[in-house]
């Protein structure tokens, strides 16, 4: 029988117990994986093993996909009216709201987040997205199209069928819901492959999905490794679409596999090396605050992190001093301590990866102005780190680090800043700080990225699309645009009985 993970939280910020089913959720039931394998789950704040979940294989993915296919044919898709799909999504949002604190505690423990961030950002954002797409569920319709008197033509926005969702470990619940909410609103059924590094919140979500009353098989979760379970989902012939968030390396592999199998649709939300441009006229205090937030939130483990910071020469020295001071003052610690502003990175692997980038920055001759080391003691903590005097071809300038590491570069003119900002294979996000509105618009228009934030950090809303240019992926999450990612358009031509 599948087990249950139980944890007693006795912290200042959250007290209470949390339980999570640790089986695979297939066809509305908790089941053991066919091979009976398990995966250890770690607490990144101290490196201890806190439990085990099931490790699904290709066989489990096949069972889940077949359950999703059967549910699509019998009890979901356009058979269920949009307002009913919406009602269930509203119900799910209510359940998340009612259990928001315990869900946030699970997420904070598993992913090494601050509890306050998990509660007020990750879980709240998931609730907001569910409500936003619940509202869309009965409003995604086609058009009637005028052609000639002899013909009646219209379009339908139909679901794709079974969709595979592959989600990483940095915002496990939030990113899963960015995909789940529009997929269910438009009538698709789902197999979710959650990162094995942070599996707990998705398993808890499955419990709420069952409680909300979604028919069996509409939503399935398989926890397991990317190279086995993730690969099997991408290869499966009954899966019509894969929505993937993760590294550019694996995103490319997902596309290749989709192309080699059934040409399934793919949307990719991949890495970034997002530029931040701070002009001389920027509000110093506000820009330092937001630059820090966009760089260090969740220890920099954000695809949209503003890691390349271009500062105009007139304020360069002052800004660099202020940024280094702000970085050094960030309180690191356990996510359940009141004073904690930044938690650990997610795993030993990620810790080693981030530290090796810091080492390469030092070796290549960049000047360290803040941080630059692991925090002594237990847990996977890396100090908030800033390098100056970098060169465009250094690894720390070109590659996504996915840790709390930023580089600062001096510039003279707007043109020079735009040129340098666009000198990257990525194009996910960007940040501009200026009090000159015309310049803000000009620069936002010139930057090759899917999102531009002006005088603010990476504060997303369910109504506004998010997604990359260049090698940061394609397709949008959130907003009306995400509905397109989960629907296909059928055109119907009807002869009205005349010669066409
Ligand atoms: P990956 O891209 O490897 O993982 C993302 C998801 O894809 C996980 O669920 C993973 O499973 C799965 N996956 C891995 N291999 C395959 C495959 N062959 N087919 C289908 N799915 C697969 O990211 P990592 O977790 O390894 O992180 C490495 C780097 O990726 C980070 O340092 C960062 O630079 C970047 N990254 C970017 C993210 C973003 O939001 N854009 C998010 C996370 C990482 P599993 O966990 O089992 O490998």
From TrEMBL:
<dbReference type="InterPro" id="IPR016162">
    <property type="entry name" value="Ald_DH_N"/>
</dbReference>
<dbReference type="GO" id="GO:0004030">
    <property type="term" value="F:aldehyde dehydrogenase [NAD(P)+] activity"/>
</dbReference>
<dbReference type="InterPro" id="IPR029510">
    <property type="entry name" value="Ald_DH_CS_GLU"/>
</dbReference>
<feature type="active site">
    <location>
        <position position="269"/>
    </location>
</feature>
<dbReference type="InterPro" id="IPR015590">
    <property type="entry name" value="Aldehyde_DH_dom"/>
</dbReference>
<protein>
    <submittedName>
        <fullName>Aldehyde dehydrogenase family protein</fullName>
    </submittedName>
</protein>
<dbReference type="InterPro" id="IPR016161">
    <property type="entry name" value="Ald_DH/histidinol_DH"/>
</dbReference>
<feature type="domain" description="Aldehyde dehydrogenase">
    <location>
        <begin position="30"/>
        <end position="492"/>
    </location>
</feature>
<comment type="similarity">
    <text>Belongs to the aldehyde dehydrogenase family.</text>
</comment>
<dbReference type="InterPro" id="IPR016160">
    <property type="entry name" value="Ald_DH_CS_CYS"/>
</dbReference>
<dbReference type="InterPro" id="IPR016163">
    <property type="entry name" value="Ald_DH_C"/>
</dbReference>
<keyword id="KW-0560">Oxidoreductase</keyword>
<dbReference type="Pfam" id="PF00171">
    <property type="entry name" value="Aldedh"/>
</dbReference>
């Amino acid at each position: 029988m599948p087990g249950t993970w139980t944890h007693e939280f006795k912290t200042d910020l959250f007290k209470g117990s949390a339980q999570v089913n640790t089986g695979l959720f297939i066809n509305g039931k908790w089941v053991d994986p066919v091979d009976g394998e398990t995966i250890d789950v770690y607490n990144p704040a101290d490196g201890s093993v806190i439990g085990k979940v099931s490790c699904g294989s290709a066989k489990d993915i096949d069972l889940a996909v077949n359950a999703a296919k059967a549910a699509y044919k019998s009890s979901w898709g356009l058979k269920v009216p949009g307002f009913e799909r919406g009602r269930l999504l509203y119900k799910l949002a209510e359940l998340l709201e009612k259990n928001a604190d315990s869900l946030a505690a699970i997420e904070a423990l598993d992913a090494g987040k601050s509890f306050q961030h998990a509660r007020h950002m990750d879980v709240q954002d998931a609730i907001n997205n569910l409500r936003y797409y619940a509202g869309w569920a009965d409003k995604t319709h086609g058009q009637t199209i005028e052609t000639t008197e002899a013909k009646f033509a219209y379009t339908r926005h139909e679901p794709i069928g079974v969709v595979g969702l592959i989600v990483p470990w940095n915002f496990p619940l939030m990113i899963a819901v960015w995909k789940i909410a529009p997929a269910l609103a438009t009538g698709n059924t789902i197999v979710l492959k959650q990162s094995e590094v942070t599996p707990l919140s998705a398993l808890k979500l499955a419990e709420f999905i069952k409680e909300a009353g979604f028919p069996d098989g509409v939503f399935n979760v398989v926890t397991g490794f990317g190279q086995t379970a993730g690969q099997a989902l991408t290869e499966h012939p009954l899966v019509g679409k894969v929505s993937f968030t993760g590294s550019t390396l694996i995103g490319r592999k997902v596309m290749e596999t989709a192309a080699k199998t059934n040409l399934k649709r793919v949307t990719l939300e991949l890495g970034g090396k997002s530029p931040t441009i701070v002009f001389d006229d920027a509000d110093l205090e506000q820009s330092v605050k937001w630059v820090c937030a966009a760089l260090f939130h969740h220890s920099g483990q954000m695809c949209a992190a503003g890691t390349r910071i271009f500062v105009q020469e007139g304020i360069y020295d002052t800004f660099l001093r202020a940024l280094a001071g702000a970085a050094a003052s960030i309180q690191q610690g356990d996510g359940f301590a009141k004073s904690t502003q930044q938690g650990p990175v997610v795993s030993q692997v990620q810790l080693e990866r981030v530290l090796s980038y810091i080492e390469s920055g030092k070796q290549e001759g960049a000047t360290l102005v803040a941080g630059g080391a692991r925090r002594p003691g237990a847990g996977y903590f890396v100090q908030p780190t800033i390098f100056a005097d970098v060169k465009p071809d250094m690894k720390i300038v070109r590659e996504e680090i996915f840790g709390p590491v930023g580089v600062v570069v001096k510039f003279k003119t707007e043109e020079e800043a735009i040129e340098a900002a666009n000198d990257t294979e990525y194009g996910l996000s960007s940040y501009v700080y200026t009090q000159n509105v015309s310049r803000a618009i000009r620069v936002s228009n010139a930057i090759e990225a899917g999102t531009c934030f002006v005088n603010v950090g990476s504060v997303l809303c369910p109504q506004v699309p998010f997604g990359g240019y260049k090698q940061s992926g394609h397709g949008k999450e959130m907003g009306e645009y995400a509905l397109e990612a989960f629907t296909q358009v059928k055109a119907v031509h009807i002869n009205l009985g005349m010669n066409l």
